[in-house]
Structure formats: C-alpha cells, structure tokens
Amino acid sequence: MFGTRALSSVFLIAAVLALFFIGGYPLAAALLAVSLIGYWELSKAMNNPNAVPGAERSPLPNKKKFDSMDIMAVVGIVLYYIVMVFLHDTSYQFAAVITFIVGILFAYVSKFPNLQIDRIANLIFAIIYCPVFLSFIYMTREFGDDGKWLIWLIVISSWGCDTFAYLFGRAYGKKKVFPTLSPNKSLAGCIGGVLSSGILGATYGYFYVCKITGEKYIFIFTAVICMVGAFMGMAGDLVASGIKRHKGFKDYSKLIPGHGGVMDRFDSMLVCSVAVYALSLAMIKIW
After folding, report:
1. What residues contact residue 78 under an 8 Å CB cut-off, 6+ apart?
2. Rounded CA gap, 150 and 27, in Å?
3. Nearest alpha carbon to residue 23 among 140, 153, 130
4. Where are the domains positioned within the chain?
5. Mean pLDDT of the chain
6. What residues of the chain score a pLDDT lower than 50?
C-alpha cells in the first residue's frame, strides 16, 4: 500500500509541476478533465444520504445515475473553460457562471415538482466548488508575465502547508483543533503549516522573484500570499473532510491509487488557488 501511494505521489507531483511550468492549453485541458471528474465525485457525494451518527463510514459514496442535470452541468463546465481560455476576460467568465445558474433555475421551474431544490443546490455547489475554483489555477498561471512565478505560490501554499503541518503535527500535535471533523489536525500542525508556508514564500520571493522582477521587497508579499493561501487551503481541506463525514464515506473515489479521488487529493488546492489569485491581483495594484 505504501509503495503504491508513493509511486502515485511521484507521478502526480511530476505531472502537476510539468503542467504548471508549461501552462497554456495543456494546463487548461488537464484542469478541465480534473474538473469534470471532481464535479462527478462531488455530485455523487452530495447525493448520498446523511450519515447516521455512530455508524461506520462506507469506503466510497453510493453509485449515482448520470441524468439530464449532469449533462447540463458537463456542458456548462466545458463552455466555462472555453470562455476562460479563448476570451481572456474574467467578466465573461462571471457572466457564464451567472447564465448557467439562471439556466439551472429555469430547469428547476420547468421540471417542478419532479426536480427537488436540494438537487439544484447540490448541483450549483459541485460546479462552483471544483470546476470554477480549479480554474483559478489557470488564471494565475496566465496572469501575464507574472503568472510564470505566481503559479508556484499555489504549490508552496498548498503542498508546503500540507507537508509541514504533518511534520509539526507529528512532533508537537497534542492539542486537536477539530477532533470530530478532522481528528488528525492539531493546533501545532495548523500553525506550523501556515508559518512554514510563509517562510517558504519569503525565501522563494527573496532569492528568485526579487531577481526577475527587480522589486526589492516583493518577498514580503509572497510571504503574506503563501500564509493566507495556506490558511485558506486548510479550510478547503476541512470542507472536503466535512462532506465525507456528513455523508458517511471515506474517499471520494479510487481514481488515484493510495490517495482516493480528485477531491481527496486537490481539496486544499481548490480554495488556495482562489486566495492566491485574488491576493496577486491586490499585490499588482498595490505595487
């Protein structure tokens, strides 16, 4: 099991780093594929009945039929990515999301009472939380010339925090912060992960970003962005864990051997990428 998990980790890390470095169409295509898988994982998860308190969790969510609303969702996700990649304007992306939500509401009205409002709410959540949030990785990478170095702040914030939170938690993690939601998360791990991400961000900013931008103090911004991104990434991790516990299963899927599904592996990066992109916009304006 450990060997399978380690091999999967190496392949996954190599693929992500290569796509982040290349950017452009290959990154967009990969994110679209991951988004569609992540949507389906979330859709199945949200379709699960609420867990019975004290009952043992099942390995995976219950199976779910692919219905007309799922077709509508897939078409909407594909069109959203087409708008993002070829129109290069966030206002069009925002308009695409709003148009899609309005379309879903019309579908609800036209199919009433056969279509439940819970299904509509879960559908919108599944689309926004995975496909739309993941798109911020592409938006960060394509952030002009700065995107080539901004994209690595997502890696530092997400994976850097995960790594050091684990190490600090193992060494000093006596006090648990979310014992019911995430029993393995400790206060020391959370603090250590966020602070370590800030240090990594400052180091990256000082030794690399300062040189390529000519901005002497930009390492302060990279440190702040990585700390906030790490904090938001942990929030994303907890949300994904909360859904699993609320719905009574352990992994979203078995797609990645030893890791689970897309939502198990990229849960922190989803929210982290939104934070990094938003703070990068603010940084560019301030600077």
Report:
1. 32, 36
2. 15
3. 140
4. 2-286
5. 90
6. none
